[in-house]
Input
Amino acid sequence: MNKKLSLVVVILTALALTGSALALAPMGPPTAGLKTGQFRAGVEYSYSDVDVKLEGEKLNNVTSNMIFGNLGYGIMDEWEAFVRLGVANADYKDEDISGNYGFAWGFGTKVTFLKQENLNWGALFQMNWTDSKDKSEDVKFDFYDMQIAVGPTWKLNDTLSIYGGPFAHVISGKVDTSDGNGDLKEYSAFGGYIGAEAALAANTSLFGEVQFTGAGWAIGTGINWKF
Output
């Protein structure tokens, strides 16, 4: 194994052992759904399979599971913000590296910029961070992944909406090891997604979606309660 490949394997092992996901996180509708002063609590899950670049090497099929608790707040009727805390893992099948679950966190915001009778248009921005050190592999790394989406939410009836649109996915990070340094980046930055949200009861809803980029895909789901 050459030195560059050895560095890649060391970094991947550390990422997996510390539960650092190179993943597509759930997005939900790209439009704001909270009124001023309203809260939303929820649980979200996603599974993703993406290709990334590590030190210029393309790594195929890096898979991740992410489970989050999400708390949102309505800043204005058409603008909301949220934070999420949870756990995530990462597996790399080509090197038979299976990851543990580790702490994951992030934040985001949504805004509705055009309202029509049954069709609203909005934009979403969200980020997730990792800043960790794996002592067994002598690796320190920090990186973020960011998703930006824009699109419509179409209300079909009182209980069901469809949403989606194009989005960008960016991964950027630095890794320091005893054998050298490495850069983490996304392999493909652009994609699209589509999903549906259904009302289960008063102020309670369930969503599900699929995301695709030029280098991967993800499924996401979650349940939310407004109060």
